[in-house]
Backbone:
């Protein structure tokens, strides 16, 4: 036990309130910041173990993304920049919930199960968002790493995808890029400049983009990046954290769920706008038309724009490779139909949570995945990356131009996880290359009107789902009731599922008209009670 003396001593400084139970969910641990100190310390311990277990650097990000300022959370990042593997999510939950006098027993159990050699070195990267609680909570993580004699590097204020990028760079010995914020900017800026280099005659109006930074870390980082875009993109930054509250009436989640523009943005008809979320891993676009109607371009529209662009390039380059778009049940029915029927792309549906989408996207040469809420990215197989590299070297003329566009698209995309900054630059580059306005992008297909609602129930876990969360299996009779309600609405579709991040049941409905979608969502909510 002598080897755990420091853990015992330090854990007394981060005591667990007796009886408190939390779960490592789709977004790690997430709750009111006052309940997280012991969880943070223990995630520092776990990261030091995971690092020894994988013989690689592990990341720990302190953030609660789009949740209100008072909340916070923590997620672990695995060696290639991906989400923590499921077995270790179970360890995370057990470690977080161990009562004070059981902590060492649970720790030893994990060490034994995974045959961890404590004499190995451990390396952990830590990052945090701009919440007022993030500074002290990330200190608790660092305490945990040190207590198990791990080495830590504190990146301070970074977006979630920036930390994922650092971890991946470090574990691939710089092959993915330099593991610094500067290295991240350098890679993205270079790829963006190359992509937009030959786009002729764009007016300032076409280069203008209004960005809502959700009063968070994304705004802070954009302020560093924008002056270096060399006038290729003219960004007006709103909700930039100088006055407003994080995620309050702004940010990607607010815009997506409320289907309206954020408070504080000064948008005129036709202006191209986008919103980040609180940790910079989600993005949605929007504009308002001459009649003042709000138009949202969510993750589904983004996936369509990107996959159409890449598919065309692949065809022009003569590369015959498999490509798929991965969605969740929240994807608008029109987007699925367009991708399948018009674009002839493979479309897959998975459970909510990016780790599920990421996993399926890895099965293809190009896997474009986006949640409707704007969280997503594109994955390229190693085989494809190599073919593109070869083509850049061996071809000339038009084929070489296309191969170079593909290469720079690969470099611009953060393949580790959804990234608002990287996605934004890619979207802007595609619109520029295709000479497309936001209205033309929006017109690719028309969304079915839809509505999302939250229902508070006494125990949301009684709802169990199947078929990528599109059907319920319990409680008995609920699915039949939903089917009966859906039948009454033209083009109706609806499903319910327990949220993994909030204590609510989420209801989704879409139908031919907004009135019909609203009515269906309301009727299904009543069936859930
Ligand atoms: P839950 O609370 O499980 O619905 C939400 C989002 C997910 C994902 C996670 C993690 C919706 C409907 N759900 O999950 O897509 O982003 O948060 O942040 O947007
Ligand atoms: Zn987020």
Residues:
């Amino acid at each position: 036990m002598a080897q755990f003396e420091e853990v015992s001593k330090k854990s007394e400084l981060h005591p667990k309130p007796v009886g408190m139970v939390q779960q490592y969910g789709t977004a790690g641990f997430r709750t009111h910041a006052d309940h997280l100190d012991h969880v943070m310390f223990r995630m520092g311990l776990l990261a030091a173990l995971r690092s020894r277990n994988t013989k690689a650097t592990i990341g720990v990000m302190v953030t609660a993304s789009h949740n209100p300022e008072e909340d916070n959370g923590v997620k672990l990042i695995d060696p290639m920049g991906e989400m923590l593997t499921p077995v270790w999510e179970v360890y995370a939950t057990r470690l977080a919930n161990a009562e004070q006098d059981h902590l060492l027993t649970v720790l030893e159990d994990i060490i034994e199960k995974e045959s961890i050699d404590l004499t190995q070195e451990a390396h952990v990267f830590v990052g945090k968002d701009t919440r007022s609680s993030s500074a002290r909570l990330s200190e608790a993580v660092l305490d945990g790493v040190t207590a198990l004699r791990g080495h830590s590097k504190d990146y301070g204020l970074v977006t979630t995808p920036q930390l994922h990028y650092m971890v991946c760079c470090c574990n691939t010995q710089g092959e993915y890029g330099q593991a610094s914020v500067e290295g991240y900017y350098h890679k993205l800026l270079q790829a963006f400049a190359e992509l937009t280099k030959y786009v002729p005659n764009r007016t300032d109006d076409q280069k203008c983009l209004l960005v809502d930074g959700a009063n968070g870390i994304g705004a802070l980082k954009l302020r560093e990046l924008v002056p270096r875009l060399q006038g290729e993109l003219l960004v007006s930054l709103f909700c930039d954290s100088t006055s407003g509250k994080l995620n309050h009436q702004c940010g990607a989640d607010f815009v997506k769920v409320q289907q309206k523009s954020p408070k504080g943005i000064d948008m005129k008809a036709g202006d191209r706008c986008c919103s980040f979320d609180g940790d910079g891993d989600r993005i949605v676009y929007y504009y308002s038309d001459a009649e003042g109607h709000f138009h949202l371009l969510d993750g589904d529209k983004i996936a369509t724009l990107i996959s159409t662009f890449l598919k065309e390039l692949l065809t022009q380059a003569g590369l015959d490779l498999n490509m798929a778009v991965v969605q969740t049940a929240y994807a608008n029915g029109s987007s699925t139909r367009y991708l399948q029927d018009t674009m002839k792309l493979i479309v897959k549906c998975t459970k909510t949570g990016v780790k599920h989408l990421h996993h399926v996207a890895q099965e293809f040469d190009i896997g474009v995945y986006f949640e409707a809420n704007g969280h997503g990215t594109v994955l390229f197989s190693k085989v494809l990356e190599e073919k593109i590299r070869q083509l850049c070297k061996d071809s000339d003329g038009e084929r070489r131009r296309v191969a170079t566009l593909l290469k720079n698209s690969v470099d611009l995309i953060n393949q580790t996880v959804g990234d608002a900054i990287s996605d934004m630059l890619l979207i802007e580059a595609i619109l520029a290359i295709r000479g497309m306005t936001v209205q033309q992008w929006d017109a690719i297909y028309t969304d079915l009107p839809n509505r999302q609602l939250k229902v508070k129930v006494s125990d949301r876990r009684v709802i169990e789902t199947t078929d990528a969360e599109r059907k319920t299996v319990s409680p008995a009779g609920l699915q039949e009731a939903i089917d009966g309600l859906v039948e009454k609405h033209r083009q109706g579709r609806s499903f319910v599922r327990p949220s993994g991040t909030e204590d609510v049941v989420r209801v989704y409905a879409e139908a031919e008209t907004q009135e019909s979608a609203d009515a269906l969502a309301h009727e299904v909510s009543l069936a859930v009670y």
User: Anything to note?
Assistant: The chain has a mean pLDDT of 96. The longest strand covers residues 71-77. The chain has four domains: 2-157, 184-297, 299-418, 450-528. Residues 450-528 form a domain with the TATA-Binding Protein fold (CATH 3.30.310.50).
